[in-house]
Amino acid sequence: MNSDTYSGSSGAAVINTKTSLVEGILVRGDLDYIQSPNDSCRISNRKENTSGRGEDIIRLTTIPELMH
Fold it and tell me: pTM, whole model, 2 decimals?
């Protein structure tokens, strides 16, 4: 899974783009910003899909009370 998220996104719905169903809730993630190579500013901490800590998502299961 790949997500473009930042601090403050916790609690956001994680949606399956193929089914449009909510499959989870984002709860925490990797470091958002790092110092630029020339130390002039902070930049987004971009990671390849197979590197870094990643994001933590709690997977949702069917909640019977919400079924129609």
Answer: 0.60
Q: 31: exposed, middle or buried (C-beta count within 10 Å: 0-12, 13-18, 19+)?
A: exposed
Helices (H) and strands (E) in the chain — how many of each? Answer: 0, 5
Supply φ then ψ for residue 63, to 5 degrees: -105, 105
Distance CA 22, CA 17 (A): 9
Residue type, 8: G
Q: What is the pLDDT along the chain (68 residues), one digit of tens a residue?
A: 567 777 777 888 888 889 888 888 888 877 788 898 888 899 888 777 777 777 788 888 766 676 65
The residues spanned by each domain of the chain are 13-66
